[in-house]
DNA sequence: GGAATCCTTTACCATTTGGTAAGTGACCAC
DNA sequence: GTGGTCACTTACCAAATGGTAAAGGATTCC
């Protein structure tokens, strides 16, 4: 509910009703609404990091690893769009929440950046700005699952067929961005 | 404020304080909070559509027009990130808001889809799914300006230099996606 | 059986929130 | 100058919201 309707848009009474308990039951298990939010954000960030690290551990650094991570990230986004929604929600919260979430995600981001960077150094990947690659991929993966309005605007719905298509689009973007065989995209 | 903190996260008192008036002044000019929201959404959608149509009118259909529209969209997103924020906020609102905003945006989306489609038919563009092109571009443009947390995670900030880089990334994506000279990305 | 702990509930409460009603001053027509 | 409209304010209000306090019920331990 935090992800779908926003933290401010979700009252403890709404939440409790959804769970079939009273608001006080929630406040018994969690210090406050903010305390609940902190734990939810922590779980979400941890799950995201775990998924990415697990995928990264499957292959050695290189194109196969990039594919593996992208697939895992996309699958997670489709399977758990609430995680993406939460991630987006963070930017509207207090700076404290931003920094605490960022602290969890930063290592995996830095790992990805350095992996891309060293891949470019060794010639496996075409040289470009790893930050742009990462940012663009993030936007592609999250934008598609977190914006149902955009999907319906182009006349699509997030079914299995669409998911496969969208995943291909993400992977294609990574391939054309990283494959040294392609020309540089700048004109 | 609706875009940054969300509609639910913005009280009329917050808004009034920001404007230096009282809440009742707002309610004098607008029927209710929802009435205000409707007008704000209408203005935002109209501005978005106007910008895109204006850009589309500069060139004839083809690669130049695609570039023109993409540049205009990106410039608008950078200059008015609140428009992007509002667009994202729509999906958490009532279905009535969704449909009314969609009604304004739908024509321009359909125009874009058919322009891409006919360009593919005539061989100007490489054949692929226009919906994916549009959706991906939308994600790229909006994701980058609407997610400051992601930007800081990769160690960037949205200054002029970064904006130019990001715009190039968007344009490159469109070029490699539409240019018939490139191989198809599917592997 | 009784005590204690755990979980949940019913009662409340202060504050915030969207909204109404009734004024008040400025400006304008005549 | 006087009546009327416009823009805005003060004064309220009912409902919702986050949170506290206290009171059951289970379950477990002895």
Question: In a few lines, what is going on in this structure?
Answer:
The structure is a homodimer of 187-residue chains. With 187 residues, the first copy, chain A, is an all-alpha fold.
Notes on the protein architecture:
Two copies of one chain form a homodimer. Chain A has 187 residues and is mostly helical. In chain A, 75% of the residues lie in helices and 0% in strands. Chain A contains ten helices and no strands. In chain A, helix 5 packs antiparallel against helix 10 (160-178). Chain A starts with a helix and ends in a 9-residue tail after the last helix. The mean pLDDT of chain A is 94. At the A-B interface, helix 7, helix 8, helix 9 and helix 10 of A face helix 7, helix 8, helix 9 and helix 10 of B. The structure holds a DNA duplex (30 and 30 nucleotides).
């Amino acid at each position: 509910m935090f992800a779908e309707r926003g933290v401010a848009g979700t009252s403890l009474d709404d939440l409790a009703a959804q769970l079939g308990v009273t608001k006080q039951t929630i406040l018994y298990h969690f210090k406050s609404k903010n305390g609940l939010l902190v734990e939810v954000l922590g779980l979400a960030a941890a799950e995201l990091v775990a998924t990415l690290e697990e995928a990264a551990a499957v292959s050695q650094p290189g194109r196969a690893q990039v594919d593996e991570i992208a697939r895992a990230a996309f699958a997670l986004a489709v399977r758990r769009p609430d995680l993406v929604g939460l991630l987006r929600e963070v930017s509207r919260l207090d700076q404290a929440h931003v920094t605490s979430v960022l602290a969890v995600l930063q290592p995996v981001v830095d790992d990805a950046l350095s992996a891309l960077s060293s891949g470019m150094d060794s010639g496996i990947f075409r040289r470009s700005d790893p930050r742009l690659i990462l940012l663009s991929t993030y936007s592609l993966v999250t934008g598609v699952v977190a914006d149902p309005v955009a999907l319906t605007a182009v006349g699509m719905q997030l079914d299995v067929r669409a998911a496969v298509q969208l995943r291909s689009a993400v992977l294609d973007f990574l391939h054309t961005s990283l494959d040294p065989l392609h020309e540089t995209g700048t004109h």
